[in-house]
Amino acid sequence: MQEPEASEPEATRRDADVTESSRANRGWWDRNADEYQTEHGTFLGDDRFVWGPEGLDEVEAELLGPPEELKGKDVLEIGAGAAQCSRWLAGQGARPVALDISHRQLQHALRIGGPFPLVCADAGALPFADGSFDLACSAYGALPFVADPRLVLREVRRVLRPGGRLVFSVTHPIRWAFPDEPGPEGLSVSGSYFDRTPYVEQDDEGRAVYVEHHRTIGDRVRDVVASGFRLVDLVEPEWPAWNTSEWGGWSPLRGNLIPGTAIFVCVRD
Which residue numbers delimit the Methyltransferase type domain (predicted)? Predict the structure, then answer.
């Protein structure tokens, strides 16, 4: 007898706490890592450091500092996926550690290879001693998916040395007011920018299988400062002419009109 097909998750807006969000997103990334790497692996490359769907490359942006100054630096990549960014960092002579909550994502990192450790752990409970790293980075990793971003930021501050830098990118908060569509339908406001209710996909029994959390720009700034960092830059990449790709709700059409990514450059004093 044929097994019944699993029903599609229901998309809704509701509260989801730290534990539910972590469990849901670990499972989602484990289940979807193969498809994600197949779909986006060419754009990401094996050893590029791309900050978001716009294609802003660390080679040009130098948000972690000049490439020649990365040599010998201990760097933690949070939400590393297949560790493309860590592989680029290793190529500059840095000593990266690639961390992700998803075991399957890290299996893709292992498949591609690289001379650096892979660590499967939650960003809210980093398994490292105080002052272990000079730099930390996260390209769309962890922070869009956690219920308490300050928990993660304080953990990152703890493992950074004084003067250390954290740079992280997230979906630009303004995008939460628009439908997540790459075409013209994604250009009309459909909800309140100030509604912080998480986006949740849940199964038939109401269990979350994917969670994403919204913070306004002001919320993100307050999170950074309250966690002991100094915000030194906020980068909103413009959509470049060369990039004709669509990635979910990111597209040349929308990217030329509204920002899609926000990158926060922070220093631990």
Answer: 76-168
Tokens standing for residue 152: 């993660």
Mean pLDDT, rounded, of the chain: 96
Contacts of 42 (CB under 8 A, 6+ apart): none
- Give the closest residue to 169 by CA, choosing from 250, 262, 266: 262
> For residue 12, what are the β-bridge partners?
200
Helices and strands per DSSP (H, E), number in the chain = 7, 10
Give the contacts of 73 (CB within 8 A, at least 6 positions apart): 94, 95, 134, 135
The count of C-alpha atoms lying within 13 angstroms of the C-alpha of 48, restricted to the half-sphere facing its C-beta, is: 15
Token pair 């297949």 is at which residue? Answer: 82
Q: Determine the straight-line distance between the first and last CA of the chain, rounded to whole angstroms.
A: 63
For 215-248, what is each residue's pLDDT tens digit? 999 999 999 999 999 999 999 999 999 999 999 9
Q: What are phi and psi of 5, to 5 degrees?
A: -70, 140
Residues 70-128 pLDDT 10s:
999 999 999 999 999 999 999 999 999 999 999 999 999 999 999 999 999 999 999 99
Distances (CA, A) of 228 to 52, 232, 268: 25, 13, 7
Both tokens assigned to 57: 């490359």
Q: Residue 77's beta-bridge partner residues?
A: 98, 137
Widest Cα–Cα separation across the chain: 63
| CA–CA separation, 147 and 18 (whole Å) | 5
Instruction: With beta carbons less than 8 A apart as the criterion, state whether 196 and 215 touch.
Output: yes
Q: Is the dihedral of CA 189, 14, 221, 70 positive or negative?
A: negative
Per-residue DSSP letter, 6: P
pLDDT of residue 7: 78
